[in-house]
Structures are given as C-alpha cells and as structure tokens.
Design brief:
The chain is an alpha+beta fold. The protein contains five helices and nine strands, in the order αααβαββββαββββ. A hairpin with a 3-residue loop joins strand 6 and strand 7. It is rod-shaped and about 115 Å long.
C-alpha cells in the first residue's frame, strides 16, 4: 500500500514538474517574442527619427545654397573674383561647410575643377537644387557629399540660370545625428549607403 502511494506521489511530482517546465518555457518564449517585437518597434521608430533629422538638416542646407544662389553680386560680371570668394568664405564659415564655390555655365569652378559632366551641375543648371549620394573618401574612413543650387542672373529667383553654387559637406554632418541617437543603455546608431558602406558612426575611426 505504501509502495503504491509512493509511486503515485512520485508520478504526481513528475507530472507537476513537467507542467511547470512547459509553463516556464512558454512564458520565456512569450517574453522573448515580446522583447524582440519591442526592440523591432524601437529600432523602426529610431530609424524614422534619424531619417527625419537628416531630411530636415538637408532641407536647411539646400535652403542655404538656394539663398547663396540669389546673391546678386555673385552673378554680376563687375564683381571681382576676390569679392565673390570673400562672400563664399563668409557663408562657409557661418554654416560650417567644408567648402563653397561657384561654377559658371562653362562648368569650371573657382578652384579650376571641370564639373560640367557632374549630375549635380546639370541638375542645378536646370534650376534645381541637388544633393549627391555620400562619396566615400580614399581613406575609406570618411565620406562627404555635395549640395548644389542654381545661381540666378542678377539674383532674381526663377529667371535665368548663369551658374551653379555648391558646397561640400563632410560626414561630421551625419555623425552629429548618429551621436544624438541612443538605443538602450549601450546601443548606438550608424548610417549606411545603399551598398552597406557605413558613412556615419559614433566611432570616427
């Protein structure tokens, strides 16, 4: 009789243990799924915030270039190159751009570079602002991109395009955005090109 009771108790404990293991496993799986879903949602929201910040900053930079394109002295043949360069230098310093220059309709900029075949030059000569894809530099550790706008005759918007104003912006522009994004306690954000090349990260190296 005692042996039978002992067997019943043992089997009962085994059944209860099995049920507890199954319940614990189920709860762990559900907790894992909830964590993954929450993380995916957080990452998606973070990506959307980053994209909005980039779009906003690029929009501001495009507006700056568009404003430079309406400075009448830059399109005036009577304004010396030195005075024009002084205007551009002031804009470069004010807006913390890597460089700012002008190319007239011949496609030769103030630095002597021929950009007549560049997509941004062609687009801005047609009256459009343009932002290039990030260009990875030869060191493979940094990138830059170009923002251009039309240079309007006598500074009058939507009249005759006489050249192109364009700025080179380095990857610090994008890194400042990734620096401001935090994921959890230790996570960080980075930005890649379509081909997977990282162009902005908290680690500048």
């Amino acid at each position: 009789m005692k042996s039978l009771k002992k067997k019943i108790v043992v089997k009962s404990i085994m059944v209860i243990s099995a049920i507890l293991i199954l319940m614990t496993s189920f709860l762990l799986i559900m907790s894992y799924k909830n964590t993954v879903n929450t993380l995916e949602k957080t990452l998606k929201e973070t990506a959307e915030v980053a994209a909005l910040q980039i779009e906003t900053r690029l929009g501001t930079s495009k507006s700056v270039m568009a404003e430079i394109g309406t400075i009448a002295r830059l399109s005036n043949n009577n304004t010396s190159k030195e005075e024009k360069q002084s205007i551009l230098n002031l804009k470069q310093e004010t807006y913390k751009l890597k460089s700012v220059t002008i190319a007239y309709s011949d496609g030769i900029d103030f630095n002597g570079n021929n950009i007549v075949d560049k997509d941004f030059f062609k687009a801005s000569m047609e009256g459009k602002s343009y932002v290039t894809d990030p260009i990875v530099n030869a060191d493979g550790k940094s990138a830059e991109f170009i923002i251009s706008a039309p240079l309007w005759d006598k500074g009058y918007n939507n009249t005759t395009v006489v050249g192109v104003v364009y700025a080179v912006v380095d990857d610090e522009f994008l890194c400042q955005i990734t620096d401001s994004i935090k994921v959890g306690d230790t996570g960080s954000a980075y930005i890649t090109r379509a081909d997977g090349t990282i162009i902005a990260h908290k680690n500048r190296d």
